[in-house]
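FAQ: What does the model actually see?

It sees only this:
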Amino acid sequence: MKKVILLCSLFVLISGCGKKNVLEDDYVVNTIGKLNCNNEAEFYYSDGERTVYLVCLEEITLIDKNGEMTLREFFEHYDTVEVPMDRFTSPLLIEEQLFDGGTRIYKDNPEKQYTNDGITVIKCQTMEKNRDYYIGPKDLQAEDIKNGYCGKVVAE
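And it is asked to produce this:
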């Protein structure tokens, strides 16, 4: 009996140890917009070095054939924000690259939109070492965020 329990325990440990793919490659994004938006950036998630802010969005859900999860839940599967955000922005098009150190503005691809209502991602990379992300609706422009975007200090 002890051997059976030991073997079952070993099987559970071995099968659960591999890092599984938390999101299939062919996923879609569902954004939930905020009513009465004033373009204020609101804290969403941080890994201690990089912070993600939502602008005019309540939540972002990632949906694949296995189910759905929030973007926050997706972040929690990684040690840093950078890896899942690279994956999140990979289907998007770089609409603009700013001359502030490398800030990029990503938008949905009009030929193969993967969000329900369009999306904008601003990936800060400034000379002042701001490496934060701002995620908002498709019509979000960098200058729309009050007091600037990547230079703005947002209270958590």
